[in-house]
Amino acid sequence: MDKFLKSVSFIFHPLIMPLLGVIFYFSKSPRYIPVQIIQAKLISIFILTVVLPILLYFLLKTLGKVKSVYLDTTRERIIPLILNCIVVSLVIKKIVPANQIIELYYFFLGILVSTLACLFLAIMKFKTSIHMVSVAGLLMFFIALSIHFSININGTLAFMSILVGAIATSRLHLKAHNYIELLIGFFIGMIPQLFLLKYWL
Fold it and tell me: Comparing C-alpha atoms, which of 156, 109, 111 is closest to residue 133?
């Protein structure tokens, strides 16, 4: 059981959630988008949201700014969160501008708002669960897409609901967070996505 819960936290790391949202969008969108454009967007987002943060993490670890990938203290979180805000801003401006793919534009705008909220709380010395922030935001985006495109993705939503519970359980079991940090993380991830729906749904 311990290995399973640790695997959940590792496999569904916050870094991959934006990429999963983009992959899901392209797989379900009824709009015609040339394959070359989809591939270019996916590669660009993978590099900016997965590869670049990993490289920045190793740089920060070398400089002694962070100790582990889990960013156990609020002090360790400040610089990575600032860098993540910059990365997400680049994605919004260069990869998914509003005049191209409005759904993904607001998805990443919601991610930016959630990241800024996490940064503010870290400065205030409160450690919210970034795992819960990311999975809650992704869940809300999936729900919005199912309504927007009028598609039945009940199986996906059921899986995502189970995943939310599994991630919360793993973070509690690993003593990485308490109930309050998980709950606040869930709402920080979901509320920006929910609020931004009125601009594109």
Answer: 111
State which amino acid sits at residue 54. Answer: I
Cβ distance 91 to 108 under 8 Å?
Answer: yes
Q: Who's near 72: CB < 8 A, 6+ residues apart? A: 176
Q: How far is it, in rounded angstroms, from Cα 171 to Cα 162? A: 14
Q: Within a 10 A sphere around the Cβ of 156, how many other Cβ atoms?
A: 17
**b/e burial code for range 53-79 (CB count within 10 A of at least 16 → b):** beebbeebeeeeebeeebbeebebbbb
Question: Would the pTM of this model clear 0.85, i.e. be above it?
Answer: yes
Helices (H) and strands (E) in the chain, counts: 9, 0
Per-residue pLDDT of 127-167, as tens digits, reads 998 989 999 999 999 999 999 999 999 999 999 998 888 88
* Total Cβ atoms within 10 A of residue 183: 15
Q: How far apart are CA 94 and CA 148, in angstroms?
A: 24
